[in-house]
């Protein structure tokens, strides 16, 4: 018999990771383990094979969208689950919510949503859940009237926020709470900060147009540009060279309101990831020194990476702003930017996982931390110096009430009036609400030491 030539076995194509299964694991990580959405999603996308990177936008849309509408989707799921899923099956629960999100908010054919979501259970190694998912999703499609009634009769489901946060907004903003909740559930715009040391804003907008990117300027701050449609940072002309950064317009106001002057020594407390640090240096390059502080070494590394891209220099320190004896060199500061930890209730639209990770019992600890920061930083300020207190919260207890308490305890603290661009006037300071003039929700108060 003639000898048959040896043939090498065909190599198997790499198995394609199921996008819905990957998204379910991200949602589970946030819901069960209180992971930050950005971190959990980044880990997932970093592990995607290069050939599958086209699935990244879909995974991002499903995770962000499901968490944005989590409380509403949760109420809908409860209608069709005969009993709660076990703790070990919360990935299947997340997958069910992702399926419901697609049916309610994404332009995907209904039959494709059901089929793909059901098949994702196999990728999660739980084929037993296929029948459960199929039944729940098809029941949802059949029983829209029941779904709508359930949503309308449940405040948390109707506005897709935790009830405690809805109640906080109702108390703080009785005329605006529904507008705030609606803004929180919208996709946030992509906002840029133009480096005016390198370019004018008008010239950069024209450059964006040349690259097929539509944009408009935001009047509240001279550096802010809003994109009509978000793009990857790699698509932004000059991003790698430090000509532009991604930063919300309200966050850009911090450097403007601090109004640092040439020759001054500035402290940016809680500086990571370095957006405000970079803006301060872009705006006033002739500072004597800018100290950028954060207590997390990994986050300090982010500050350094951002400054390297911008070709800027600062003194970066790992340290706790509430414990200056561990890091302060004894030399006072002319100005201090105190961007303190807070509930982040003003940036929910940008970080929908806040709705799950933040709880009502967190507030007392945050208030204590804010007071500790203020009391620890105030002695570091020169007489005549200014401290800008900043939060991304819209809760008065963290903002004007915190300032009232501090000023009552420190007679040498005098309020410095802020311009109208900083937001609505409060008893002390000014407040921007989410979505106003295209920006996130931020609070600012400026104090001078007499």
Indicate the topology:
Layout: H1 19-33, H2 37-46, H3 56-68, H4 70-80, H5 90-105, H6 110-123, H7 129-142, H8 144-152, H9 155-159, H10 163-172, H11 177-184, E1 191-194, H12 201-210, E2 215-217, E3 224-227, E4 244-246, H13 249-258, E5 265-269, H14 275-283, E6 289-294, H15 297-310, E7 315-318, E8 333-339, H16 354-357, H17 362-377, E9 381-391, H18 400-409, E10 413-416, E11 424-425, E12 430-432, E13 442-449
Parallel strand pairs: 5-6, 5-8, 6-7, 8-9
Antiparallel strand pairs: 1-3, 1-4, 2-3, 9-13, 10-13, 11-12, 12-13
Task: Output the structural class.
Answer: alpha/beta
**Uncertain stretches:** 1-5, 8-14
Number of helices: 18
Round the mean pLDDT to the nearest integer and report it: 95
Within the CATH hierarchy, at the fold level, what is the topology of the domain at 19-160? N-utilizing Substance Protein B Homolog, Chain A
The CATH architecture designation of the domain at 19-160 is Orthogonal Bundle
| Rough outline | globular
Amount of beta strand: 5-15%
How far apart the termini lie comes to 104 Å
Largest sheet: 9 strands, mixed
Task: Characterize the structure shown.
With 450 residues, the chain is of the alpha/beta class. The chain has a domain at 19-160: NusB-like (N-utilizing Substance Protein B Homolog, Chain A, Orthogonal Bundle), CATH 1.10.940.10. Helix content is 44%, strand content 14%. The protein has 18 helices and 13 strands. Strands 5, 6, 7, 8, 9, 10, 11, 12 and 13 form a 9-stranded mixed beta sheet that branches. The chain has a 4-stranded antiparallel beta sheet with strand order 2-3-1-4, covered by helices on one side. α14 links the parallel β5 and β6 (289-294). It is globular and about 70 Å long. The model is unreliable at 1-5 and 8-14 (pLDDT under 50).
């Amino acid at each position: 018999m003639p000898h048959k030539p040896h043939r090498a076995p065909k190599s198997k194509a790499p198995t394609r990771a199921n996008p819905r299964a990957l998204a379910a694991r991200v949602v589970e990580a946030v819901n069960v383990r209180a992971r930050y959405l950005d971190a959990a999603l980044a880990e997932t996308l970093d592990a995607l094979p290069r050939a599958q990177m086209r699935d990244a936008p879909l995974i991002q849309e499903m995770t962000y969208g499901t968490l944005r509408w989590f409380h509403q989707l949760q109420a809908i799921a409860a209608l069709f689950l005969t009993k709660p899923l076990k703790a070990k099956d919360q990935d299947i629960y997340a997958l069910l919510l992702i399926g419901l999100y697609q049916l309610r908010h994404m332009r995907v054919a209904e039959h494709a949503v059901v089929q793909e979501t059901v098949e994702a259970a196999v990728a999660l190694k739980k084929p037993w859940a296929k029948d459960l998912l199929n039944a729940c999703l098809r029941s949802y499609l059949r029983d829209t009237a029941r779904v709508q009634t359930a949503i309308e009769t449940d405040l948390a489901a109707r506005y897709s926020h935790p009830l405690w946060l809805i109640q906080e907004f109702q108390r703080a903003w009785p005329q605006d709470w529904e507008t705030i909740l609606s803004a929180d559930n919208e996709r946030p715009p992509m906002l840029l900060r133009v480096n005016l040391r390198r370019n004018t804003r008008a010239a950069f907008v024209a450059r964006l147009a040349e690259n097929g990117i539509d944009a408009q300027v935001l009047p509240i701050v001279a550096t802010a540009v809003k994109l009509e449609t978000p793009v990857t940072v790699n698509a932004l002309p000059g991003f790698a060279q430090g000509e532009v950064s991604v930063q919300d317009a309200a966050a850009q106001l911090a450097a403007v309101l601090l109004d640092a002057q040439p020759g001054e020594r500035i402290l940016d407390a809680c500086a990571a990831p370095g957006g405000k640090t970079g803006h301060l240096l872009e705006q006033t390059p002739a500072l004597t020194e800018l100290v950028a502080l954060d207590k997390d070494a990994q986050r300090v590394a982010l500050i350094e990476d951002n400054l390297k891209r911008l070709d800027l220099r600062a003194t970066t320190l790992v340290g706790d702003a509430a414990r200056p004896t561990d890091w302060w060199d004894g030399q006072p500061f002319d100005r201090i930017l105190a961007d303190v930890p807070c509930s982040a209730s003003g940036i929910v639209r940008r970080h929908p996982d806040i709705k799950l990770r933040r709880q009502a019992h967190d507030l007392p600890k945050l208030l204590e931390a804010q007071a500790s920061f203020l009391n620890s930083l105030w002695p570091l300020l020169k007489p005549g110096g200014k401290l800008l207190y900043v939060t991304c919260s819209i809760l008065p207890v963290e903002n004007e009430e915190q300032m009232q308490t501090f000023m009552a305890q420190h007679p040498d603290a005098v309020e410095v009036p802020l311009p109208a661009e900083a937001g609505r006037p409060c008893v002390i300071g000014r407040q921007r609400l989410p979505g106003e003039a295209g920006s996130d929700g931020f609070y600012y108060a400026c104090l001078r030491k007499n």
